[in-house]
Amino acid sequence: MASILSACTAAAFRLASKSCTGRRRTIQQAVTKHPYFLQTCVAPLHHRLAFSTHASIDNDDDEQIYDDGLDQLTDLSLATQNRIRSMKARHDEVLRLLHEGGDPTSLGKEMSTLREMSAYCEKVAEINAERLSLQELLEETEASGDEDSKDMIDEIKDELEQLKVQLQPLSQRMHKSLIPVLNPDDVEDLTSSDVVIDIRAGTGGDEACLFAAEIMAGYEAIAKSGGDGGKSWDIEILSCSTTDLGGVKEASLAVSSRGGGGGGGYGYESFDVASDDAPEDEDMAQKLLQQLGPYGFFQYESGVHRVQRVPVNDNKLQTSAVAVGVLPAIPEGALGNALPPTELKIDVMRASGAGGQHVNTTESAVRITHIPTGIMAYMQEERSQHKNKSKAMRLVAARVHSLRKQQALQERSNARSSLMGGGDRSERVRTYNFPQDRITDHRCKVSVQGVQSWLSDGSMVGKFAPHLYKMERDDRTAALEEELDDSGKNGKKRRKK
């Protein structure tokens, strides 16, 4: 027993040596004046050591329950605290399985998602152990009635306040680690997938077509700068139907990164949001944009873009609309698995319209229909049937993949309404008001001045994306809280039965 107390006392002094000068002096004075210091300071330290080595502490026949300190994080709900505890327990279990020779591939991947949270838990536990030690020391000192202890009491209270201050940023980091900025279900697409963007003029006639051309030009401009990430992305026009005035009736363009999407990462710590106004922090927003691939950068452009301005051939204010669809592209090597030949109907025909000698003389145009969904793509841009078929296949694959993602999302959320909406073409997402020189995103309720400057270089995409990612994360946070609360209520009902 004496050797155990000696070891714990040495550990307590090592802890004191790592603390601030005031805390070291407080603890050293406590050792001198209070014989109960070993009970009040060393016992919690012993508990912490047992917790970190995944062992329980036995005192005779009763198991002592370790206080992990999470209840001190008052800005985290009880359900969230319990979820964090389960992650810590799972981390310890995975670590044990690895030590016992478990599969390093699957367990290692899971460990990487739990390691950060476990480290935060251990840090909170360390601070809490020190808090308990000082709290008990404070009670003992106050109970002694010693007039000379007043200075020590003040110092202990100061130390307790400092420990509270240390817990606050840990609480924020744990919350971010629990719910990363990028949805883990979609992170691979967001950071690595290329994108196919469909643009279609809607209500407004020629004015809508002209606005569609401006949006398309803006997307091309921002894509050439790598989506604000500093690396140029490749742009390919899959199809484009234009008007005599230079407008665009309908177009599809593919944006691809050169071998690998954005900057990678899984959204757990590289670019997390620190506070409610973090998207206003240009450095934090830039870190987010640098991590995104083409699909992740453009994904929130899906929906109806409305423009209000006076057309060049009129003197009245007119409202027009353009529908945008953003689809994750399927790599060419994976097209065969994504679209089995038995599910496709391929028709070849002669191209129509202006185009030279090959039009109406060779069967270069291709129409591909995905039979199960009815999704179709028609391509006649190229003189070669083979090239048109390749483009049509990519377009169909992207549209089918997008449909499947939407269906899977609906199943996962059980048709739960989302703050972000469904990204549907029929959903109004943004208004470009030229008379007031303002762009407003209706999802995040953010407006910016200077329509033409934001639109001409496509920089409005990077301006609104961080706000929309934060909204999506808030939505997942609310869903998780709801899920945890429901599971807690169901657990209580089962216990009553």
TrEMBL record:
InterPro entries xref list: PCRF, Pep_chain_release_fac_I, Pep_chain_release_fac_I_sf, Prokaryotic/Mito_RF
Keyword Coiled coil belongs to the record: yes
Feature: compositional bias, Polar residues: 405-417
GO molecular function (one): translation release factor activity
Any coiled-coil regions, as ranges: 124-173
One Pfam family named in its UniProt record: PCRF
Gene Ontology terms: cellular component: cytoplasm
Disordered, as annotated region: 405-428
Keywords annotated in UniProt: Coiled coil, Methylation, Protein biosynthesis
Keyword Ligase recorded: no
Sequence ranges assigned to domain Prokaryotic-type class I peptide chain release factors in this UniProt record: 350-366
Similarity comment text for this entry: Belongs to the prokaryotic/mitochondrial release factor family.
Cited PANTHER family: LD18447P
Name of the protein in question: Peptide chain release factor 1
